[in-house]
Amino acid sequence: MAVANKKCRPKMTAFGIQYRMTAGDYVFNVLNVTFFVLFTFICIFPFYYLFINTISDNDLVGMNMITLIPKGIHFSNYIALRDVQDFGQSVIITVSRTILGTALMVLASAYAGYLTTRQLMWKRSFWYRAMVITMYFNAGMIPTYLNMMSLGLTDNYLGYIIPGIVAPYNIILVKTYIESIPGELEESAEIDGATVMQTFTKIALPLSKPILATIAVFGAVGNWNSLQDSLIYMANSPSLYTMQHRLYIYLNSSSNLAQAMQSGTAVTSGMLNNKVIKYTISMVTVIPIALVYPFMQRYFEEGIMMGAVKG
Description:
The chain is mainly alpha-helical. It has 16 helices and two strands. A two-stranded antiparallel sheet has the order 1-2. Helix 5 packs antiparallel against helix 12, helix 10 runs antiparallel to helix 11 and helix 12 runs antiparallel to helix 16. The protein starts with a helix and ends in a 5-residue tail after the last helix.
């Protein structure tokens, strides 16, 4: 009798309602877990494959003998990149534009998004609609280049920063998020004599951390992976090439890069393998974003969901 009662005891509790697990529930759970495990593996494996090939014996990599487990582990491929001409400069340019460009974009988006929620803003609807229109209409590459050239932003580091400060999509996300904050908070601050800037910095900005973290991820990834602006606007200034631009050049002349690496450092002859060079540089461009994103994911999920509730 005790055994029978044990078998009939509820197995799970959800929202305060007790129920038993059926055979269908078990099958669904197994299939669900299996699917997401496979999906996760498919997403992660390309990065894992790149990484193990960059730290494995270069000769084995050249013979396609590295698939799941690294062999002959070493890190000389990454160390050799230090002596590649102009690679260090491109890293500095990419890191600096990512930090500065993302910070200015987040601040501008936060303030512009906040202002569009203020009823007292002059012609608020007009300016908001004018900003949204820019998301759907573009002058094209040649007029944009001529505009950048007339403003003196070609072959100029500021050409990386200024055009990306105003991002309409991010402003819309911030606006929608701030509208979800109770208006009574701002009203109480205004009654106490707070100015618009004080209300923004003391109330709106701290409460908007999730959405600001979300657009920061967007901005950081965009700046880090950007190639076109460097390719078009910095054509005559090699010292301003980004890391992605250098990667593009290296992938098209990897044999010359191999010779530069061999002459610069004491690496094995396997470093001459073009495949190893491509894998190593590709991995260097992926690692920073892959390391930063997990710390921002919590804010990213909350911010993107809150910012998509209303339009």
